[in-house]
Specification:
Layout (H helix, E strand, L loop, with lengths): L1 H26 L3 H23 L12 H11 L11
Organism: Halorubrum kocurii JCM 14978
Protein name: Glycine zipper domain-containing protein
């Protein structure tokens, strides 16, 4: 339960930062653009948080945990792979 709350707060934080940046950039154009920029920035921030927190996320290979690397090697065996050998 604690990890679910922590993940939700992380997504909310990224969404809030994205909305603030989007609204600031859109505010340079007009009020309507600020509203739209805030909405799109919030969506982008929440999406980034989901990608970053997921085990298969875009940034998973940059994590330093050795446990994650061991799990990734084991999960590669389950998928179909093609190995080329010199014969």
């Amino acid at each position: 339960m604690k990890s679910r709350i922590k993940g939700a707060l992380s997504r909310a934080k990224y969404a809030a930062v994205g909305a603030a940046i989007g609204a600031a950039v859109g505010g340079l154009v007009s009020r309507n653009a600020a509203s739209t920029g805030g909405a799109l920035g919030g969506l982008a921030g929440a999406t980034l948080a989901d990608l970053r927190s997921g085990a298969d996320g875009v940034f998973a290979e940059f994590r330093s945990d050795s446990d994650d690397a061991d799990d990734a090697e084991e999960s590669d065996d389950a998928g179909a792979t093609i190995e080329l050998t010199d014969e």
